[in-house]
């Protein structure tokens, strides 16, 4: 706990919302400290793109700043501008690059650093960048195997030569991005690490950064001088196939709108799946419009083989309860029969994921990853931030 512990409310007021999110900023802070420890002598930055993975950039960024984070990564210039209004002193890097000459003004105005990903980014920054005490500060991204963004090694080599003469830009960070670090045994990890050592050697005067969350867990020399965790800060599993050591940060709950009994042989939800036994159903007021994906739908739906893949589970009164039928836009059904008659009531909440129902289990049942569940949460929830330095 920080000594400025507080609690803030945003989003829809609780009695009017179909669901609520409890966002535990102390858990976020603890996850940051854990990643800092794992990063060893490397500085630990924070990736807060996509509204801090759907959690809300302002309370998240303030909490991480209070924990000592000084460098932040967003995806888009607009996200950088929003973050600047929250953290006047932070170093803010924009991962997706410069967005052409038209965007250069916002970089200057908000003191953002573009991550230069291509020759056209570099030329535009040379022509339209701003100067601080150094000319045209930026980061450089060199591709080592992801083949998404980034300069080729040859281009980086030429740039290092040219820029040593002209000093036209000032790289503060040289980075690359790991493509398969969630699988520690994947041969691409070592290959990318080797390639990145050659990149580092080109730009010795600036900090090197290779690791996302999963990369940090690779340990050894991987962290370099600066790590860039995202998902692990927010409680998601970074590495496949091992127990997730991070604390859950978000608990998402759905309000029960109605409890009904369905007789054996009757149908339920869209598509009319037939239930085999008398079933007590909690009808809950969130659906795929709230980021609870339709692909999480329960057994007996055409999306799934009923016998082997039951869909996602909710959690209420100490028990896991299976999702029943198809998830709809605004409503989701859970089978609460096992809790017995009169056990659940209108106005109570079923946990969709969080403290009791691991987000990665729910994501897996929906054929996706925690990143996608978090960034899909949407604007219809009541949001309650607890703890932290908000
Ligand atoms: C999103 C992103 C990260 C953070 O990745 P996580 O897997 O969420 O830790 C780091 N670096 C880059 C380039 C990214 O795009």
Automatic annotation (TrEMBL):
This is Alanine racemase. Pfam families: Ala_racemase_C (PF00842), Ala_racemase_N (PF01168). Coiled coil: none annotated. It catalyses: L-alanine = D-alanine. It comes from the Bacteria. It is an enzyme of class 5 (isomerase). Keywords: Isomerase, Pyridoxal phosphate. It comes from Nitratireductor basaltis. GO terms for biological process: D-alanine biosynthetic process.
